[in-house]
Amino acid sequence: MHAPPKPNFAASPAPASLHSPEQIAEHLAQLLERAQQQWQAIAELSHRQQAALRAADHAALGKLIDEQQRIAPELRRIEQSRRELTVQAQRMLPALRSMPQPKLSQIAQALGPQHAALAQRAQALRALATHASQQLAALRLATSSLAVHVETVIRQVSQALSADGTYTRRGDVRSSAPALAIDLST
Fold this sequence. Notes:
By secondary structure, the protein is mostly helical. It is built from 4 helices and 2 strands.
């Protein structure tokens, strides 16, 4: 089992200390690296969750969900750093001043052609984050569908075992007589 990367809080200077385009570029590179690591971990966990869901391995699912929840705070810190970097970049780079919410790739482009690799990394990060988010949405849908299916099966079994075979308003099986006993010892 692969553990997600540990957060690297020392890797980023405080955005308030950014005083030059080169410092913005350096902070942007570090931010992109941190975000890439975390979104890659989310994507990997999503693949492992799909396998656990297919295998109906609820113990593994629980562990994988816990791992994802440990990544969420770092993604929130990265998002906060992105917002702070955006404010600093807009103050320093004239090309960004008219943009309400510049993207990381736009910040990299505003830094000049010598930082084209940063713009490409930002675009690759956006594609990775979009893909991982779509995987998570598909997992939520599959999990929800599976839960509804299991609930339906349980209700059908309960109805078959009830004396009345009718439902209450809450969807529970109404039974005026005790349910039949089934001997499973043989």
